[in-house]
Specification:
Blueprint (H helix, E strand, L loop, with lengths): L3 H9 L5 H16 L4 E6 L2 E6 L3 H12 L12 E5 L5 H8 L4 E5 L3 H11 L8 E5 L2 E3 L3 E8 L17 E11 H12 L4 E5 L5 H6 L11 E5 L8 H9 L3 E3 L7 E6 L13
Parallel strand pairs: 3-4, 3-9, 4-5, 6-8, 9-10
Antiparallel strand pairs: 1-2, 7-8, 10-12, 11-12
Helix pairs in contact: 1-2
Length: 273
Amino acid sequence: MPSTSRLARAVRHRGLPWHTRAGLVRSELGRRARPHPAYGLRVGPATVYLSNDDYEIDWASFAFVFVDEAYAGDYRGAVVLDLGAHKGYYGAYALLHGATAVVSYEPETANFALLDRAAATLDRAGSAWHARRSAVGAVSGEAELHVMGASWGHALAPPEAFAKHEVAVERVHVDALADVLAGAVERAAGARVIVKLNIEGAECPAILETPIAAWHGIAELYVETHPWASCTADDIARHLGAGGFGPAASAHPAVLRLGRRAAETPRGDASGR
């Protein structure tokens, strides 16, 4: 369970709708009195779920997005790619803050089940939330996903130290990042495209081995970096600098935020058609 101070901070957080704050309290009380497989939290136009089996991890993941606001930014009118979606907390955050469409990619079975369930609850005219059961990497194909005891640790290439936490291996589909980016830009039809990427240490090959040209049309990027990755946040920033991205203020030290430099224009801008 979350600490009393952590729960109190969430309940006081004015960025959360009142019914979401009330839902956090109901979930905490309900799981003690009569546990359920999952606890729904209505967040603006959609409902997300905390699983009972992974409650502490799911609660921490939810708080990272909604209370710490690690991905804070301007989502109004944007099309959002959520790569490494877990159970959909970031997708719901983007929609709450004005995104018109979210496409979420998550390969792991249990996480995807609640992500897909969350996406199906979206209830706002003119908005869309699509869930894709797939990992994202430099090239398309299939790969082994190492499933960990903690729902946020599943990885395609985990460090050796993670072996003691591994509980299963799933064979999963992998979509090439370049193809995913191209599909989002086409879907956006001139709207801003924002990408969030949290793929548990696989961010380096996915980004560094994707052609720079594939990023044309992307307005902003959030990358959660990991200490066991094969490159640093600075390496990623330098690489994408060649594609017209520059550093932007990030709300969390683990999240690298990059934005299109003023001189650059994403595809679909008035000056970039």
